[in-house]
Amino acid sequence: MKRLTGCLVLAALTMNTVALAADYPTKPITLVVPYTAGGPTDQMARSLAQGLAEQLKTPVVVDNKPGAHTSIGTGYVANAAADGYTLLMASNGSMILNPLLYKKTPYKLTDFRVFAIATEAPLVVVVNPKLKVHNIQELISYSKSVPKGLNYSSVGQGSPLHLATEILNEEAKMNMTHVPYNGTAQALTAVAAGDVDLMSDVVSTSMPLISANKVRPIAVTTSQRLKVLADVPTVAESGFPGFHVATWFGLAVQKDVPAAVTEKLHKAAYQVITSDSFRKRFEALGLIVQENQNQQQVDQFVQTDLASWKRIVDLKQLSLD
């Protein structure tokens, strides 16, 4: 009798979940953006929100909750009702790096289901143009000729730009010292001025200085060459097969949202992401717009990215608490 009762309860819960998914959505959806309004991530979030609203036939409201290195907004979604009406503009900074680097982060990756990867922000390794360095192998040779090693800039300890260069440093067995700056402009200016030797930076922010020949691009960290830097080789083809480092942005929900609801969100999200209008707008900003991926592929993407960053964080024993 107890077994029968349990089966009936389970069946009822399953029917309720199916009914919920069939009706979803019945009210406005909130997309929480853990960044300030007006920035590039916010612009992407608003484009996704508009597209989702069209696909799901319901308003999608953007709610900016910046602060604490994205932890405020991300933590808010982790504690939201598991009904699919509170979405997160996710990134590897919030999903992966924060939990790795901060012991007191009010959430962990397993509190979420990332259901779509929208874009990757490719990185480019740039050097001072006065250096006789035009590719990664020349950089490695040059680093060995400098007794004290090379200096590289970034936007701060534990940032993706810092860790990306550390991954390259570890792979290539170079001797490099990190010099953190308060922002991208200062870090790039330091390379252009010769105060430091190199930097790994997001392509879109480096392009003005690259175009002005104030910094020289020697490699991109993505798996394939970029259209905007077609003559610049990848790190992978420069002697390090499989090398791939980039930041990414996507969409996530609280982990207990019913699978059927997440599937609806997944389908709607990729209708937006793979549209010509979204692709043209964000590829023009130097981003790599992603192809349609099923949930298993999205999960694998996130786990592969986690393993890459975790290895260098553990190796360098990095902590920002």
From TrEMBL:
A Pfam family that the UniProt record links to this protein: TctC
Alphabetized InterPro entries for the sequence: BUG (IPR005064), Bug_dom1 (IPR042100)
Sorted UniProt keywords: Receptor, Signal
Signal peptide stretch: 1-21
Family classification: Belongs to the UPF0065 (bug) family.
Annotated protein name in UniProt: Tripartite-type tricarboxylate transporter receptor subunit TctC
Organism: Advenella incenata
